[in-house]
Specification:
With 475 residues, the chain is of the alpha/beta class. It folds into two domains: 262 residues, 3-Layer(aba) Sandwich (Aldehyde Dehydrogenase, Chain A, domain 1); 190 residues, Aldehyde Dehydrogenase, Chain A, domain 2. The chain is built from 15 helices and 20 strands. The strands form five sheets. Strands 14-15-16-13-12-17-18 form a seven-stranded mixed sheet, with helices on both faces. Strand 10, helix 8 and strand 11 form a beta-alpha-beta unit. Helix 2 runs antiparallel to helix 5. It is globular and about 65 Å long. The N and C termini lie far apart (58 Å). InterPro entries: Ald_DH/histidinol_DH, Ald_DH_C, Ald_DH_N, Aldehyde_DH_dom. It comes from Acidocella aquatica. Belongs to the aldehyde dehydrogenase family. This is Aldehyde dehydrogenase.
Length: 475
Amino acid sequence: MSNNLKFYIDGAWVDPVVPNRITVIDPSTGQPYTEISGGSVADVNKAVAAARAAFHSFSHTTPKERLELLKTCLAIYERRMGEIADACAHEMGAPIGFARDAQAVAGQAHFAALIKTLPNFEWSEKRGTTLVVKEPLGVVGLITPWNWPLNQIVSKVAPAIAAGNTMVLKPSEIAPINAIIFAEIMHEAGVPKGVFNMVNGDGPSVGQKLAEHPDVDMMSFTGSTRAGILVAKAAADTVKRVAQELGGKSANILLPDVDLDSAVRQGIGACFINSGQSCDAATRMLVPRMMHDEAMAIAADEASKQTVGPAFGNSTVLGPLVSQVQFDKVQRLIKAGIDEGATLATGGLGRPDGLSGGYFVKPTVFGNVTRNMTIAREEIFGPVLSILPYDTLDEAIEIANDTVYGLAAYVQSKDLEKARAVAREMRAGSVYINYPEWDLFAPFGGYKQSGNGREYVDFGLNDMLEIKGMIGYGE
């Protein structure tokens, strides 16, 4: 029996207090895929009460017990990865291969990385006669996005469990089915009643109520900066801890010594991954002015090879955007680029030839972009690359940092020492040098309006723990 219309509260699948159906759209077709229930303040109250009631006993479990629980969760997760990938393909338009090898794998990888980290985690430290201990924080509210749903769900839920916290998850109502499968995994794994709870719904009805709830001790939010501000304001009255991973406008600086063809082509991948719907996408490519025209031509050529199509298409590289709202936003920003005088190297307005009905966007490259253009300042969240020329490396660094965001930055150079020097100047939480492999053991989070706090392994775990000093504890 499907649990799509139910919430998971206190170890059971329950009906909403007030019936409220939300249609989930398949972005490859623009047609309904399924329905879920939207929650209300009454559902949030039930879930928080369950989490609060479960906290005392769960917070007294040992780290070893919680580690074994995470291992069980991972084993069941791995068994259901095919279903998770299928859900991601249907509800967010991720090409099925990418949904399987990236979206579903991301959750698996975060479980595995934390499980590897936990045996060496220091839960206490002696400082003279003081014992410093790290203790469970309490009830944690988790709000996760639609673009990398399992990546964010697991990178919040797993450390919350590892810390001994209880929690209420509100996944995105745009891509919620993967989260329902995840809740089924938690249930099968034997997560104690009330430790993990899930309520679907929109931001105002569920997310804001969770953030302002007096019995929630921490909010962990991933999403837009605009929504993050609302969560922080809602949380402020109860002075709860707030960790946020928000928007980005990441610069990718190509130094003059790069292999231009390789650096630009890989830069397209770093910008277009997940159809450009990644907060850390390398959306601003900064190249030496004398190399600009060649870079633009290479980028246009590489972008034209990115086959756009439905999630289950055999040759699809880029799927659709997730929604009509997202499609309209990207079209508006592409038009702004054209109207403000950027050079349209490829792509542009409208859908690719032969595609209709879904939220498909032409892979787009702009050249001769200046730092004050809209496309250089606003987060686009689509397969749109802006190429900005620079004259000196100092100017490139200045342009790269000239943004309200600070989630990620990228540096390419054959000279590793030069790349490292530039990386030190980037005001961003993550700097990727020469397109490295994904590192699950690195901290993830941002400077400035890209948020606060850090996720992944022990960084995320520390954010979900309280620190207590017991002075005079003894030698």
